[in-house]
Amino acid sequence: MTESSSKARWEGDLKSGKGTMTVGPDRWTGSYTFASRFEGSGDAATPEELLGAAHAGCFSMAFSNMAAGAGHTPESVETTAVVHLGKVDDKPAITKVALTMEASIPGMDEDAFQELAEKAKAGCPVSKLFDTEIVLDARLR
Known about the structure:
This protein folds into 2 domains: 6-39; 47-140, K homology (KH) domain (GMP Synthetase, Chain A, domain 3). Helices cover 30% and strands 38% of the residues. It is built from 3 helices and 6 strands, in the order E-E-E-H-H-E-E-H-E. The chain has helices at 34-39, 47-69, 110-123, and strands spanning 6-11, 18-23, 28-33, 76-88, 91-104, 133-140. The longest helix has 23 residues, at 47-69. The N and C termini lie far apart (35 Å).
């Protein structure tokens, strides 16, 4: 078993406060604010962007592993994750995650590709964290 840690610090109230998030042992540190998270303004990061990066990375690795296990090692797998922050019962909630993946895999047919993509979506450990709809648009180059 491995462990990974990140941390966050928040100062002030929700709307006028500010914070910093640090990934791993000082691998990346960035700021976040109410405006960046809930209003889409400013140049600060959001927790949802970090979740999206984690989901895209996890999914890409899971898919690559499954494809290689089926005898088709990918040349490349590129995934984008869009994390939708909305409201459920008038409270902020992640309402959907949209994954878009493009992969270059010589010799793999479209049906096998789509089947493995769906298995990777369901099997990726980060996917299992989300209690929301996850949609996938997978394209074989």
